[in-house]
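Good morning,

Both structures are done.
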Amino acid sequence: MAGNAGGRTSPDLSELAADSASLARSGTAERVAAILRDRITEGYFPPGSRLSEESISGALAVSRNTLREAFRLLSHERLLEHRLNKGVFVRVLAVDDLVDIYRVRLLVECAALRTLGEPPYDLTAVEAAVSTGEQAALAGDWPGCSTANIRFHQALAGLANSPRTDELMRNVLAELRLAFHVMADPRRFHEPYLTRNREIADRLTEGDAAGAERMLAFYLEDSRRQLAEAYAERLTAR
């Protein structure tokens, strides 16, 4: 780890430099934004950290203009924020942000199940996410379990077969992960929901989309309440 801005230690950018290999010599801002989005949602750049324009453009071997456009795109997705005369930072969500994210999730995910039509459903992505989460939990890999849980909910929304819904959920769930990176104990927030993920997947396998939707609605409300309360406490302690 190297550097210190605002009391926070910045990551060693040698790992980020490896991502430059995935960029063509004419790499676009969208592709740079995709790399940074992945790194932010993985926690490589944690909430509150300052992103150095000079260091990141050098690590990715892109122009500053390209990087600034990528920053703009990620700011539009609510992952970054510009602070006057201070630079670009990974956002720290407010509790109200978290509540609103769950409001959107309830609307989108439940609607995806409500409009499924007649079974059987293509649950390949749903089943894969559930199984990956269960395997990660057995290995004690709670960050991996978190990622699998995100993929589970993305897969539920994906049952709507709507590219626009997929993009919306991708952005909403990426923003949600900013909250989880602030929390100290990921196991506490993911282990209890492994069984519920499996139960929802089983209901869908049985063709009971209405039952799965009811379970999901209660699930999201429980998750929102638990996370918002713990998150508020964590922000106060920071």
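Second structure follows.
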Amino acid sequence: MSGLDKMKSQILDEATHSAEVKIAEAKAKAEELIEAAKAQAAAEVEKISNKATADAKNYAQRVASSCEMQRKQALLRAKQDVISGVLDQAYERILNLDADAYFDMVRKMLDKYVLGESGEIYFSAKDLSRMPAGFEEEIQKAAAAKGGALSLAKEAKEMDGGFILVYGGIEENCTIKALFDAKRDELSDKVHGLLF
């Protein structure tokens, strides 16, 4: 069982225990109300007993409802933590792909994001140092296929992975972080669908 699963299980156990305690307290309160009602005068017994029973039921329902809401909120927080953890792990895995797999992904990104204009492309120092031989020509071919031209900037940009395209002084951020941030809600929904 992973640490996230243990945390989720602990949160659910605490929420369930809290609900049981509050329900028990509510039931005890209901019994007190009923006993107090029975002690009243004979003419008032039926009226007070009915009112106490109804009050106790309403109180128990409110407490149970409140506990259930707290349990659901704890469960939602646990799910959000799990989803965030999965996305963080996916991000780290992408950044730590071996050079072949990583630059295969970059090729696909080039096909998607390169424009039919003249510009420059920037990579991180890490990516510049592990760039496969002939990749600069592949960049130029990808740009030419769209009717543009791209030159590889020799200076590195501060980023984790991916690239930055610069056309006429306007930067298009195609870093892995920017792409993850832009798709975070969509990715969260997909992870939620897979896990829950």
